[in-house]
């Protein structure tokens, strides 16, 4: 039987991807201190994959505790480079340094999903995309940051693929929706399998 989804996320991108796919979804951001949690997990030696999964679960659980009968989706995206985990840039300088570090290199985006139903975790998935950045010039980078800061500040990698962020790359291997922060196809398949959306 179709069931509405509670999205434990402040991400406009995730909400619009789900709505555009025809999923009946309500967004109720689960405010957790991601930076502190990410840093402490990393200090304990957690792999970026496990950090993304843990953060997604914490967001889902926080909302599921308040809505124990609901179907709740928590999400988190982490950029993995050199075995380190990065989130959204805190400032334009942060974004500049991160993009200069990634220039000419390959990094991985990990997008984790955790679904709670009846107050318990019932499904989880991590999407992975490998992205290679071209050797863009510092001059081009300054223009990119000035033109796009208001938008890219909300993205884990410091870029929005569907906007000018595509100009950072020479190669991308993986699913477009996973780059945007929501591995949509595996989620829709699971929702269909469980009868929560029409198949
Ligand atoms: N539109 C767009 N959004 C992107 C892209 N890459 C990453 N993002 C967004 O970057 C954000 C990743 O940070 P997260 O901490 O996972 O999510 P958030 O936006 O803080 O929202 P919460 O789920 O409430 O934590 C998500 O909102 C992603 O949708 C992209 O290429 N395009």
TrEMBL record:
HAMAP family: Maf. Pfam families: Maf. Its EC number is 3.6.1.9. Its main location: cytoplasm. The active site is at residue 76. Nucleoside triphosphate pyrophosphatase. May have a dual role in cell division arrest and in preventing the incorporation of modified nucleotides into cellular nucleic acids. It comes from Gemmobacter denitrificans. This is Nucleoside triphosphate pyrophosphatase. The keyword Cytoplasm applies. It is an enzyme of class 3 (hydrolase). The keyword Ribonucleoprotein does not apply. Belongs to the Maf family.
């Amino acid at each position: 039987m179709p069931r509405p989804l509670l999205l434990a996320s402040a991400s406009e991108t995730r909400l619009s991807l789900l709505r555009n796919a025809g999923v009946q979804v309500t967004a109720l951001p689960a405010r957790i201190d991601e930076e502190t949690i990410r840093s402490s997990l990393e200090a304990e030696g957690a792999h970026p994959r496990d950090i993304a999964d843990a953060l997604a679960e914490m967001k889902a659980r926080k909302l599921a505790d308040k809505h124990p009968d609901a179907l709740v989706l928590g999400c988190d995206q982490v950029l993995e480079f050199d075995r380190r985990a990065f989130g959204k840039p805190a400032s334009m300088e942060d974004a500049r340094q991160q993009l200069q570090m990634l220039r000419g290199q390959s990094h991985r985006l990990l997008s984790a999903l955790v679904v709670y139903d009846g107050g318990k975790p019932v499904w989880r998935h991590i999407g992975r995309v490998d992205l290679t950045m071209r050797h863009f010039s510092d001059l081009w980078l300054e223009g990119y940051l000035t033109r796009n800061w208001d938008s890219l500040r909300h993205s884990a990698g410091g870029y929005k693929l569907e906007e000018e962020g595509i100009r950072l790359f020479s190669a991308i291997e993986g699913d477009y929706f996973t780059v945007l922060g929501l591995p949509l196809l595996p989620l829709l398949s699971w929702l269909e399998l469980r009868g929560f959306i029409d198949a």
